[in-house]
Specification:
With about 300 residues, the chain is an alpha/beta fold. About 50% of the residues lie in helices and about 10% in strands. A seven-stranded mixed beta sheet has the order 3-2-1-4-6-5-7, with helices on both faces.
């Protein structure tokens, strides 16, 4: 199979029928063999019933998952990725803001230019400034931290090699950071394409302002896990040693002041308590590092690594 379209949705009943018609018209023109995988993320409208109707019309085309409740976009994508059979996996939103006309160019970039992942860039957006300005800040920080030169990390329209999505474990709100997750897994050929962004025709946006804060917190989580996943002691141990060193130097200084210069009241100085506190904190950080190393070691015994090639 050429393409798997993975489409998560939440309360998008008005958009589903025109979306399927649009996708079908475009991809049949290019003579692709494809499938559409809908993941109904706990919709409270008639979305699931409509999906079942569309499946009766296109029994060999549409596959679907129905969540009992709303788990979020990351969970929906993860489940859709497990089902995907196509050589190229395309993710897109169900609200008609992503154009199926972009699918063919994205597939060509994967096949002909050998990218592992191609992310869409909504260069001209039809959103209010309350979404576009935070998005610009969000993406600027993401570029700086991840060292991936993308302009729109959170664009729902992306193309992947099938092997990439099978290696990604997406949870929480990590769908925003798919390129970063892919990079940490060793898929470094990440491209970008300017895509059309259409104004929303039906329904309302499902994302509020709070996603800006949660997005940055998720980025910090990904950065830490990606960098120190196999060596947590390098992180906690370094901080612990620095903290203990500061504490020891502080106490040595106070000891010299007490014994050599006979300064009284050393034990009542804030610096005395600072020295003790930094040693305690440093010791706790070292112990945290040791415990994390033990956890990693126990998991490593049953862990499977991503291997690009085997010469047997």
């Amino acid at each position: 199979m050429d393409i798997s379209l993975v489409i998560p949705l939440f309360n998008e009943e008005e958009s589903l029928r025109p979306l399927v018609d649009w996708i079908t018209t475009v991809l049949r023109t290019h003579e692709y063999e494809y499938e559409i995988i809908f993941i109904n993320d706990g919709s409270t409208d008639n979305s699931w019933n409509l999906i079942k109707e569309l499946r009766q019309v296109h029994p060999n085309l549409i596959r679907a998952i129905n969540f009992r409740r709303n788990y979020g976009k990351s969970a929906a994508l993860h489940q859709g990725f497990q089902l995907a059979k196509g050589d190229v996996v395309i993710t897109m939103d169900a609200d008609l803001q992503d154009s199926p006309e972009e699918i063919d160019p994205l597939v060509r970039m994967i096949r002909e230019e050998h990218y592992d992942l191609v992310s869409g860039w909504k260069k001209k957006r039809h959103d209010p400034f309350t979404k576009t300005i935070p998005s610009k800040i969000f993406n600027a920080v993401a570029r700086k931290v991840s060292q991936i030169p993308l302009h729109d990390f959170n664009c729902g329209l992306k193309a992947y090699k099938n092997e990439v999505v099978k290696d990604l474990h997406v949870y929480g709100d990590m769908h925003r950071w798919m390129p970063v997750l892919a990079k940490w897994q060793g898929y470094s050929r990440i491209g970008e394409k300017v895509v059309e962004h259409r104004a929303r025709k039906y329904g309302v946006s499902k994302f509020g302002a709070r996603r800006l804060i949660s997005g940055f917190l998720d980025l910090l989580s990904i950065f830490f896990v990606g960098k120190f996943n196999k060596k947590p002691m390098h992180f906690f141990g370094t901080l612990g040693i620095i903290s203990i060193f500061l504490g020891i130097i502080t106490l040595i200084y106070l000891t010299i002041m007490k014994l050599v210069y006979e300064v009284s009241g050393i034990q009542d100085r804030p610096l005395f308590f600072f020295g003790i506190l930094t040693i305690i904190i440093g010791t706790q950080l070292l112990l945290t590092g040791f415990i994390a190393e033990l956890v990693i070691d126990s998991k490593a015994k049953s862990h499977s690594y991503n291997i690009a090639e085997v010469l047997d």
